[in-house]
Amino acid sequence: MTNALPTHAQAVIIGGGSIGCNLAYHLTKLGMTDVVVLERDKLTSGTTWHAAGEIVPAVLGSEWECELYVYGRNLIAGLEAETGHATGFHQPGYIQPADTLERLEEMRRGAAFMNRFGIEVHEISPAEAAEKFPVGDFSRTIAAFWYPLEGRTNPVDTTMALARGARKQGARILENTHVQEILTKEGRAVGVRTDKGDISAEHVVIAAGMWSRQLGAKAGINLPLQAAEHYYLITAAMEGVTRDLPLLEDPHSYAYFREETGGLLIGLFEHDAAPWNIAAIPDDFSFGEIDPDWDRVTPHLQEAFKRVPKAENAGLRKLFCGPESFTPDLAPLVGEAPGLRNCWVAAGLNSLGILNGPGMGMALAHWIVDGHCPVDHTSFNVDRFADGGLNTPAFRRARTPELLAKSFGAHFPNESFQTARGYKRSALYDRLKSAGAYFSESHGWELPDWFAPTLDQARIEEYSWGRQNWWHWHAEEHRAAREDVILMDMSSMSKFIVEGPDACALLNRVSCNEVDVATGRVVYTAWVNEIGGFEADLTVTRISESKFLVVVGENSHGHTETWMRRHVRADEFVVVTDATHGITQINVHGPKARMLLEKVSTADLSNAAFPFMTAQEIDVGFFKVLALRVTYVGELGWELHVPALHAVQVYDLLLEAGSELGVRNAGMQTLSSLRLEKAYRDFGIDVDNTDNPIEAGLGFAVKLDKPNGFIGRDALAEIKKRGTPRNRMLQFQLRVPKPLLYGNELIILNGKEVGHIQVGAYGHTLGGAVGIGFVEHEEPLTTDVVESGSWEILVAGTRVPAIASLKPLFDPRMERVRI
After folding, report:
1. Which positions fall inside the FAD dependent oxidoreductase central domain (predicted)?
2. Is the pLDDT of residue 1 over 50?
């Protein structure tokens, strides 16, 4: 085999670590054999070589994580037999202790969900944990969780086995070849420039680990990725530590333990991690170590020794410190780069490159070859950072210390990052803070989550899986929306102005619903891909003949903009403008919404003059605002799109005018509880690219017969032709008022597990927890099957009777929104 640099390849992969070799392996498996891997030094020389090699799932909270984990574990288990190269794969099992009731709740919920996806988990007693891991101290443990099929592998050997497998299928792997830049032409990647010459390529993949940020920046791609110091200590040989000792992860001490040559390897994910080389990662850093900071890390080691006391005096072989890279939201950076077609990214695996490399390699290989991702990509798609945010040196310096512990410790509903806050604040932020808002964070936005009576009370006293201190204040917001009127700052919603002579053609081509409508009409629609999977759900408002407003959630900002721009044809003239930061969106909802607006506007707001799903420019005091009569809470109401310049004045006017009507500020918790009582869907939360509008219950917004069709029309027509689906989204309400739903709780029909809740909240009007989720059944899920079935939801190990419904349990006839 020649080591000469080729002049062309179907795919060039930049980086010879775990993810790069996994991708090459999977591309060749799919028949793309003209694949070249370029490694600046030697294979594994970045961070792969010093990875711990654990193959353990912790508590996985999404379908895609479970699917990719199980795929990867099974692949690694059979890799040696397939390639003939030893991998060191070993399955001694894995333990997680729960020392608090809150951690026990999290683990019980997570165990049921993971078992559903083929990750075997059993709750065991502290005594059983001690029997399996005899050097551990479980005196504080309430229960532990045993994963019998999990284990470890040798990172270097496993990567070499993948490389051998890729080579057998035709891939070429060239070491000591430094990629200097990505070559582009007319918005596409067309090859790479190396220190040995150029290679043209149909696809270029950035899989350069912690160097990916710097390489991407040269091509105008925003890859927020920061290296941090990662420590592990290796003890001398210890009695009771054998190769068959299970792996143990302890979220209480932010440490993990496994056998290493007769001693223990003790790894840390400490809560004050140190960023490493914020400005740039040195190009010549290979098989490198960082001088350990004993003063900083010693207190964390002492905490870890509480779990294995004998380790403290066992003797030290090595304290290792090496870099691992992390993203600001702890999700990978995978997918086609926004703004540069045929340039793909496979980076940001957050210290889980060995564990998640096979699954991500498989998913991205299919994405490249087939044109779509086979798993839910809404959390990890790299285009979520298309706006260029969360990547300044100051931001990375502030956020990184929190990331290691956040990825490893206990997790709670409604928990937000605490560092690097305030990146995106609406014009109303100060007003809302003074009014008692507690802010959560999403995609850089400060979101009012709920409102306390006073500013001093706007804090979470203790995170919990139960009712927290803000519960009753949120319930009052919910009741105000159903009985009086609320104001919601929804400025985080992404707003795009799409205009030009071909704007209508573009939007109609990507929309399942008909958007070639009269001026002033608001259209709810889904966007789908060629196989019918969701790519967005949003509203399109026609402002004029050639001008439209597209409104979508903040979690879909980058993806929505990227999807639009990619589908503008070469012969079309369309201008897409991101107007999000210039518009403050104030939602006015509730039975008294019309009464409130009539106090501040001379516009005719009657149902006849301003019907549901229409838009008009109206006056509010001194100001002109665009008002959309839509709802995401199931009540009469309007979205007011206010120029940011006038936002505070409009808000103050509404608040003052609504004082006699019982107006209240309301936050995201109330938005969630209101919308789930109404069973409204949300792309990226409860539907994703692997779901379709027909099975999700949104067929009413799919116009299969509209002129010229739309992207994905034929796929949805085929799904529709099959008749009543066997996989269908339903709404659920617990018949018992106390338990809470958050998502991932199992759905049980007539004693058989048939699905899981996608997202849940508490329905204060309905009187119990509510949620929506897909149900898979052997028969078509007709109304009779749904209504006659015996339904239960498994909540932290307890089966709770539930009501199931195809229609919204609250106001199924849409009477309240049309009054």
Report:
1. 370-426
2. no
